[in-house]
């Protein structure tokens, strides 16, 4: 059913006039663009249509005899071809579409041609269905319940139509794997990340580690409090403990001194007080502590100066278990251990806990122009940046890194390295060599060793990204440009590694700030400008870019404290607009 001269998927929409074909397409196209799909449309018009304007130069020249008129300007061009003798067949028209600049061809009309179509039908139009007579119908968008095994979509729910079209595109991709690696679909950042996360499993291997080396591990078992923290009700102040049913007594007899680590063994009677230090357990029946500064103690006769502060029953006392209650779950499995978590685990008395085993990452750079730092500079070469920025990022996440260095630009070297990496690491990351125009041997080797997709992600910086599995080992082929490497890592690799480490439901922090600069982007693309945010004199969060945004300018990343994310549905952000920022402080 596929038209053989088309390397990208093609879908038609077939309906009787009046069904609302164009209206539906007008709603569908922006949703496709949002999903990162570049759409080419082919539309049949019945009349002697003309897109040119009578009197314009192009019109006059065409009328003067140009059988093909190609008019071009900064923003678009159009080829007008005179076809006086015959309608062109769909297959000829498809050849005129630049298939390298589109991911999907949508066709309106051409109902007698054989290609996959979605039929549109509305009960109110009162027309028969086309699917019984047109075997090219692959789904029906309608508002009734025709008796068919074809997929039925809700014509009034654009999401249902969108989901079907995207699924069709994916299965086209799966069927044409080789062709696909040359012209893969443009993916949105969100869909790319979803695909990656869906392909990864949570870890199973666990082991027990000492507190000393626990930071950045992820708990494999929940932490249940074996004791109360604090273990006993104790004083929050240096002062005097009394009973709250005994606030009116004027002068109290001091019956003891209680220091942290000791206790007063007798129940406290009315008229009595004890001097007590911060953290010391309050005696039985005592439940209120008055701070030292309010007390006068004359040979054990103690009075309190209430002009310095009223005494409230229960004040300045910490209840046993008020921080962590015995038997309660303090941390679920999947918690990453940072300083407060570490401190709390220690406060419960644990010296060892069960964690997921560290993720080992094999890392290498590709490219004949890339040379190792520490070697004398060679002509036309650049020092390897990416291996080190990536190592820094991975170590920050607590990964063990296996550094495979710079791989020579040849098939055998790459293949050997990958085989070693598969045998020794949980994840493999490379940089360089995955963009269009890069040496094909990388793709050949990767394809021979596993199941790798070469994506173009609709983002900037970034775009080329290879992801898949070599055997069971996830592989990320990141772009070559140093900024693109870091931004792609933050969007795709970090969430993936956190999942492989067992961290549950991690999301980067996102906040809103007012942009002080116009931020250029494009509909369909997610733009990540390196930014610096601060709080202005009015207490508002504002952000500006860090200057030159070339994807080779790593300084832009160093000077940034956030990424400014302009989402695919926005053309550009103007000065004063709210923009989403993703703080980087704890991540790079
Ligand atoms: P590629 O994706 O291999 O075409 O690389 C894109 C750009 O990134 C080229 O200018 C490369 O020279 C540069 N590049 C590739 N790998 C590295 C690396 N490891 N360190 C610094 N720059 C790199
Ligand atoms: Mg290269």
Automatic annotation (TrEMBL):
Essential cofactor(s): Mg(2+)
Keyword Lipid metabolism: no
Domain MoaB/Mog: 362-499
EC number from the UniProt entry: 2.10.1.1
Keywords noted in UniProt: Magnesium, Metal-binding, Molybdenum, Molybdenum cofactor biosynthesis, Transferase
SUPFAM superfamilies: MoeA C-terminal domain-like, MoeA N-terminal region -like, Molybdenum cofactor biosynthesis proteins, P-loop containing nucleoside triphosphate hydrolases
Catalysis: reaction(s): adenylyl-molybdopterin + molybdate = Mo-molybdopterin + AMP + H(+)
Family statement: Belongs to the MoeA family.
Name of this chain's protein: Molybdopterin molybdenumtransferase
């Amino acid at each position: 059913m596929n038209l053989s001269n088309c390397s990208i998927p093609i879908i038609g929409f077939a309906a009787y006039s009046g069904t609302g074909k164009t209206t539906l397409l007008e709603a569908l196209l922006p949703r496709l663009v949002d999903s990162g799909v570049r759409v080419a449309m082919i539309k049949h018009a019945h009349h002697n249509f003309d897109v040119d304007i009578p009197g314009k130069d192009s019109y006059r020249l065409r009328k003067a005899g140009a059988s093909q008129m190609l008019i071009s300007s900064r923003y678009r061009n159009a080829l007008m071809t005179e076809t006086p003798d015959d309608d062109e067949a769909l297959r000829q028209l498809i050849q005129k579409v630049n298939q390298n600049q589109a991911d999907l061809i949508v066709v309106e009309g051409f109902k007698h041609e054989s290609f996959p179509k979605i039929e549109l039908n509305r009960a109110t139009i009162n027309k028969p269905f086309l699917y019984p007579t047109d075997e090219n119908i692959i789904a029906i968008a309608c508002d009734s319940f025709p008796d068919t095994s074809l997929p039925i979509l809700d014509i009034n729910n654009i999401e249902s139509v969108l989901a079907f079209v995207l699924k069709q595109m994916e299965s086209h991709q799966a069927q044409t794997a080789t062709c696909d690696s040359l012209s893969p679909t443009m993916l949105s950042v969100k869909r790319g990340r979803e695909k990656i996360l869906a392909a990864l499993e949570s870890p199973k291997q666990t082991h027990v580690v000492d507190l000393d080396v626990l930071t950045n591990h992820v708990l494999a078992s929940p932490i249940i409090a074996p004791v109360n923290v604090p273990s006993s009700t104790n004083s929050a102040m240096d002062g005097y403990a009394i009973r709250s049913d005994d606030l009116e007594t004027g002068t109290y007899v001091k019956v003891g001194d209680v220091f942290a680590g000791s206790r007063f063994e007798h129940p406290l009677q009315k008229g009595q007080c004890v001097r007590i230090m911060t953290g010391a357990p309050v005696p039985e029946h005592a439940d209120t502590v008055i701070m030292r500064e309010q007390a006068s103690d004359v040979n054990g006769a103690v009075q309190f100066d209430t002009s310095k502060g009223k005494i409230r029953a229960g004040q300045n006392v910490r209840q046993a278990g008020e921080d962590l209650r015995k038997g309660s779950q303090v941390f679920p499995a999947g918690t990453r251990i940072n300083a407060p978590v570490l401190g709390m685990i220690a406060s419960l008395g644990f010296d060892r806990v069960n964690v997921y085993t560290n993720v080992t990452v094999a890392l290498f750079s590709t490219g004949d122009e890339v040379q190792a730092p520490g070697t004398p500079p060679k002509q036309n070469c650049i020092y390897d940046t990416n291996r080190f920025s990536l190592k820094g990022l991975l170590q920050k996440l607590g990964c063990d890194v296996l550094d495979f260095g710079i791989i020579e630009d040849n098939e055998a070297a790459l293949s050997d390295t990958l085989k070693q990496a598969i045998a020794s690491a949980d994840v493999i990351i490379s940089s360089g060599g995955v963009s269009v125009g890069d040496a094909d041997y990388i793709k050949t080797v990767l394809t021979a060793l596993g199941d790798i997709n070469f994506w173009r992600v609709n983002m900037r910086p970034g775009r080329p990204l290879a992801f898949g599995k070599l055997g069971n080992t996830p592989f990320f082929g990141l772009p070559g440009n140093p900024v693109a490497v870091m931004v792609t890592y933050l969007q795709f690799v970090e969430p993936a590694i956190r999942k492989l480490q067992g961290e549950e439901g991690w999301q980067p922090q996102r906040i809103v700030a007012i942009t002080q600069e116009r931020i250029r982007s494009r509909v369909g693309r997610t733009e990540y400008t390196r930014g610096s945010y601060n709080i202005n004199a009015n207490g508002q969060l504002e952000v500006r870019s860090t200057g030159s945004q070339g994807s080779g300018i790593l300084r832009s990343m160093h000077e940034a404290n956030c990424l400014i994310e302009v989402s695919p549905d926005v053309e550009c952000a103007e000065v004063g607009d709210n923009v989403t920022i993703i703080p980087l402080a704890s991540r790079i």
